[in-house]
Amino acid sequence: MADSLEARRKRAVFRSMRRGTRESDIVLGGFARHHLGALDPAQIDRFEALLERNDNELLSWIGGWEKVPAEFDHDVMALLRRYRDTLERS
To answer: How many domains does the chain have?
Structure first.
């Protein structure tokens, strides 16, 4: 049986907050807590795929230090980048 959307959101929040590096926990966990409730199922699919990547790679894409591969250069990555920018300004 497929997981409910709410169960997927809760699992994604949990995975985002316990990445293993402090910066990942802050960026991904904060994003998940603030934005996952508004994402549709396809966007949650894309977010879950991002969570499969390692922290250094993911943070370098979000931070703009490395080019985002085409398969990960989508609306959810853009949202993550904007969220990170708001953290920088805080």
So the answer is: 1
